[in-house]
Amino acid sequence: MTQGLTFSVLARDGAARLGRLDTAHGAIRTPAFMPVGTAATVKAMPPEAVKATGADIILGNTYHLMLRPTAERVACLGGLHKFMNWPGPILTDSGGYQVMSLAKLRRIDETGVTFKSHLDGATVTLTPERSIEIQRLLGADITMAFDECTPFTATVETVAHSMRLSMRWARRSKAAFAPRAGAGLFGIVQGGIHPELRAESATALMDIGFDGYAVGGLAVGEGQELMLRTLDVTVPGLPVDRPRYLMGVGTPADLVGAVRRGIDMFDCVLPTRSGRTAQAFTRRGTVNMRNARHAEDPRPLDDACACPVCRGYSRAYLHHLTKADEMLGPMLLTQHNLTFFQDVMAGLRDAIARGALDHYAGQFLETLDLGDVPPLS
Amino acid sequence: MTQGLTFSVLARDGAARLGRLDTAHGAIRTPAFMPVGTAATVKAMPPEAVKATGADIILGNTYHLMLRPTAERVACLGGLHKFMNWPGPILTDSGGYQVMSLAKLRRIDETGVTFKSHLDGATVTLTPERSIEIQRLLGADITMAFDECTPFTATVETVAHSMRLSMRWARRSKAAFAPRAGAGLFGIVQGGIHPELRAESATALMDIGFDGYAVGGLAVGEGQELMLRTLDVTVPGLPVDRPRYLMGVGTPADLVGAVRRGIDMFDCVLPTRSGRTAQAFTRRGTVNMRNARHAEDPRPLDDACACPVCRGYSRAYLHHLTKADEMLGPMLLTQHNLTFFQDVMAGLRDAIARGALDHYAGQFLETLDLGDVPPLS
Description:
homodimer, alpha/beta, 8-stranded parallel sheet, 3-stranded antiparallel sheet, 16 strands
């Protein structure tokens, strides 16, 4: 296999790894959290502000971009990096997940998925070959194999059937992927919460050979305990010399739990979506900025946070912005939340480097359970 | 009168002046355009980005802030500068204009205006004394006298009656204003489009004595020609050693016309509001970024513009953001539009300094009439 991406494990602490993934558009410090840039923008954030939160890499959504502005148009305009003015690494998903969650009138067969666009109702077909082509047109540093996402409620037979289809699609994805310097293709382990199916899937993917291995089909309603238990049985079966990516995860506590189990990469809309619904993340848990108790509170959101939002604004002001429906509210809360998530990752990386992950994780989770600071008397 | 603000005229070109207005929070280069920060935020812009567009001073709205979060709350939190994290000068309006345009069930008498809040229907009374108190609580560098805004359609008798009420309120505003170092009070000339009423109003204000003189009651539907004609008869009657502020104006052509007639300060929602409705200002006039002709256009909005938006993004991308209803669209268009307006002011200041205003203004207006650049072939 052409080695498109270079992954170096720099330190270990238990199952956790400190690493570095080099791409054509720069290095990614792992464990890494990838902000989601669905429609060629991390919502409410200019790219230089995303970078300033500490993000090395962002995620783009194949499904959204193929429909608007279309992959061909992005390619004509110089690729996704140039289009959205993000010079760093980009991972694109395969479109499979959004086809399941957003599109209407889906029909799945061996070839791929045919669906109606949620934007204009147009009929579109997505196959492994087309998904890989779209991701190439976008100029992804990390391309994801096309897979089917199985609902959490599916029977074990359905999960097995779906996983095996995804493995055949993974082989077609690999065949369709043209290796390029500094770019790579990740396979996606499926199999729901069933250890034997996860093992079968991991083996099938390693037989094909990928630059990295993602764990898909989690964070779909199974809860943190089942998710971590599934990682316990899945991660040890993945190659030690390749990055491992847990898709669509998660809360700060999820990130800590998954890093301790050897996951290197994450993506989630939680910090950005929460920023648009007045939910702020702090070291003492989440805070609803709409709550009237913040109305006269001169303190920052999180006094341990060094982000421009916590240095420049009071809770009272952030509360005012949310009450007044001012766009600056989502902008500032997204900026803080993304910084918070990047700080969590930086803390985990530092703890792994020091061999102090258990201690760090214990303190972090304990503080997270404290609840928000009490009101000023 | 205690001299709270220092205004220096540095150069003249015809009636136009290049100046500098010093306040407790810094200097304002005039002619100046003030972005509008209605509810303690210039919509869709963090304050450091507002500063980076070239703005020296912003405007805050007494009406909005008195209702939410309230002037007392802002004062408790350290004043408007600290609350919104804008360290530069702030001018607050008196609330009179918004009471007329936004509030319901108004009752005006000699004392002041009683109205129902557009937010919660609460009954509120605004008098000259209360308006000045609110502006002091907010910590305004420039406080505006409380006035009544007369509709453009009013008869000359109504305009005269209203103007004389505003002049009595101006005297009460002056009496209520406590001079502070680096802060000042502006009077507002009323009188509609009637030269004799404008002259009477200006004389009344000068008799009271203010730190600056605003021209109010324009840009309310009279059109550019009548507006400029009214300036022609009003501005020469104002003191030469005080700043002159044309309220609520205007388009780039309005700014050029008014500066040539001796106006030093402006405010308008046009660049910010347009930024939220996909209207972009360029040296060749306005452009609607929703228009499909931009969909594949790799060029910047305005190739003569050095702002981060024009340096970092294509028209195609800005079009995509507006079509996808992404918050980054209003954010970037507002940033560009505010930069454009500040560039207009910087160009005018430079032209005055060089004694070349007529030539500059002629070229500027000619280019503005060209219309947008033709599509790429």
